[in-house]
Please model this.
Amino acid sequence: MIDDQGWYVPDELDDPFAEIKADLWPGEQLLWSERPALPRLRRIRAVPLLFVAVVSGLSGVALAAIFGALRPGALPAEMIVAVIAVGPIALGGLMAAYAFQRVCGWAARRWALARTVYAITDQRAIIGRYDSRRELRCLSLIPGMIAETSRHEYPDGTGDLVFEVAVSSTRRAVGFFGIRGVRSVDRLLHETLIDPFPRW
Model:
């Protein structure tokens, strides 16, 4: 079970595994199911942050030198301050905008994954998501729809399993994201749905 990190309360949602089991086809067997781990926001280390701050500050000094503001009496004091500040302000604004974009993307990803459940049966792969009405909507991928997988594994064994879907109505990547034991899940998916018969 995923720890509650402020994005959802697991007890308030219906049990997704029970809902998937209730939605199975006659004779279908559930082989694996899991909820994804929520991605954490990456921390910015002090040394790279200090390096960026120094470079941003030096950009202001370099700009002032280009305009001749460092020569005594060349420009009024207010203009010198403005010339020195314009570089760091511009670079800082661009970096802040990029950081804001990354944080928004991270928050949207966490929001989506907190309402997602994955499953593999002997007949299909299932990606289930809760909608705004807390109803579980499932995407089923039957044999023949997944041509291959791309596995991205981290040192702790977690990772993402991206599907190469033969026919897809969305441009977004389709797969299992933030799952534990991604290598064994990839093997199970291949043995069950992608290449269930051994090649002689």
User: Anything to note?
Assistant: Residues 77-113 form the longest helix (37 residues). Confidence is low (pLDDT under 50) at residues 1-12.
